[in-house]
Amino acid sequence: MTIELQEKLQDFQTYIDAEEKIEPGDWMPDDYRAHNVRQISQHAHSEVIGMQPEGNWITRAPSLRAKKILLAKIQDEGGHGLYLYSAAETLGISRDELIEQLHEGKAKYSSVFNYPTLNWADIGAIGWLVDGAAVTNQLSLRRTSYGPYARAMFRICNEESFHQRQGYEIMMKMANGTPEQREMAQDALNRWWWPALMMFGPHDNQSQRTHKGMMWKIKRASNDELRQRFIDKTVPQAEFLGLTIPDPDLRWNPDTNQYDTGEINWDEFHQVISGNGPCNRERMDHHKKVHEEGAWVREAAAAFAAKKQAQQN
Amino acid sequence: MSDKNSQGPVWEVFTQKKSGQAFQHAGSLHAFDREMALENARDLYTRRDKPFGLWVVPASAIVAVSSEDSEAFFDPSDDKTYRHPTFYDIPEEVKNL
After folding, report:
1. Segment holding B29, helix H or strand E
2. Does B29 touch chain A (CB under 8 A)?
3. Which residues of B touch A25 (CB under 8 A)?
4. A304 touches chain B (CB under 8 A)
5. By CB neighbour count within 10 A (0-12 exposed, 13-18 middle, 19+ buried), where does A230 fall?
6. Contacts of A63 (CB under 8 A, 6+ apart)
7. Is A35 a residue whose pLDDT tops 70?
8. In DSSP terms, which residues pair with A307 in a beta bridge?
9. CB-based contact A86:B27 (threshold 8 Å)
10. Which residues, including other chains, have CB under 8 Å from residue A143's CB and lie 6 or more apart?
11. B29 in Cβ contact with A86 (< 8 Å)
12. First vs last Cα of chain B: how many Å apart?
């Protein structure tokens, strides 16, 4: 490393340590740029792929009210994907490249969206647990050091709070409904609890990228810290519903003032992120199909814009 | 990185909350022409809290000062204390000034 580069890195770190934000045109280490592209694009892809498990229930929502709410929520998820793609693009990568990386499996999305939505209670559990886990992470990321990412997080967090509430409302209705509905609510909690905890990623001592991510303040809290934060606020919400968290080792620890939990099935986690979850193939095939079917729209819009441009000249 | 672009150019979006207020940057998006940029901006950045005004500007038209240059670029605005009203001593008995 040259002395000049060392000095630049030093200045960069000082700037970050002073809680200043990095903006698109600023000098940044290549690794910082790559780390942000990877994290922001993974976040964007998760928002977009996350539309699929919920979209599965639009036509079968139990009431017009529920359908309108679900449509609005899914539209938000699409919008959140677009905010994040835009933030990633400010780092010099194009939208086409981002989508290509997703289709080629070079970019990942959250493993949780590779689980199926089997019944209406799953829509409640997703809003409550999956959005709840996502927002725990996103609240922390409002303080991320890359300006466009931080601003997207503020916008997203403002919109997310209704998502979690609508999910909890569904859970309340079902938990207080017929014995069958109650059973469905418990079953949904049983199936979504562990995948929601996996959303925070590997334990800190297993996470290769945590160190640099924290040093550069891209990440503001570690995977385990965020996961614990989520567990501590969610357990009382499950108790209010009268539902049981599917973890026999879960108990309040008065010494640490937080819940102790059983171990996550990391083998399942690694299976799902490496492509062997229940719906990985289906999610990706659907995204590719829709992208290809939409190609003519993009081509027509480009042709129309060129024609109008020619008429003006 | 490749130049392939099937998504149209990037536009910056600015929204105005109420009549008379300053426009504020909301974010950016892709669109093929001005009309599409406005419609996409409406759909993407104003799904709630109906704003009053909306601007879209081709991102290529934005000229920016980088953070690195910021200090030097804006330096002259910091050293002229006589531009502030507190620089001037006015006797207390003089009112409305």
Report:
1. strand B24-30
2. yes
3. 64, 66-67
4. yes
5. buried
6. none
7. yes
8. none
9. yes
10. A150, A217, A220
11. yes
12. 60
Best of A83, A151, A307 to disrupt the B interface (most B CBs within 10 Å) is A83
Are the C-beta atoms of residues A218 and A36 closer than 8 Å to each other? yes
Question: Backbone phi, then psi, for A302, in 5-degree steps?
Answer: -65, -40
Length of chain A equals 313
Site of tokens 């620089």:
B87
By C-alpha distance, which of A132, A114, A122, A272 is closest to A196? Answer: A132
How far, in Å, CA of A129 to CA of A227, rounded? 12
Sheet with B10-16: list strands edge to edge: B24-30, B10-16, B53-58
Question: What CATH code would you report for B3-64?
Answer: 3.10.20.520
The reply to whether A266 touches chain B by the CB within 8 Å rule is no
Contact A97 B4 (CB under 8 A): yes
Distance, in Å, from the CA atom of A84 to the CA atom of A42, rounded to the nearest integer, reads 9
Domain ranges of chain B: 3-64
The H or E element spanning position A260 is strand A258-260
CB pairs under 8 A between A and B: 74
Q: What is the pLDDT of residues A160-197, one digit of tens each?
A: 888 999 999 999 999 999 999 999 999 999 999 999 99
The shortest CB-CB distance from B1 to any of A87, A92, A302 is to A92
Question: Contact at 8 Å (CB) between A51 and A71?
Answer: no
Cα–Cα distance measured from residue A8 to residue A230, given in angstroms and rounded to the nearest whole number: 38
Residues of chain B with pLDDT under 50: 1-2
Chain B residues inside the 8 Å CB shell of A90? 28
Share of chain A above pLDDT 70, in %: 100
Write down the pTM of the prediction: 0.92
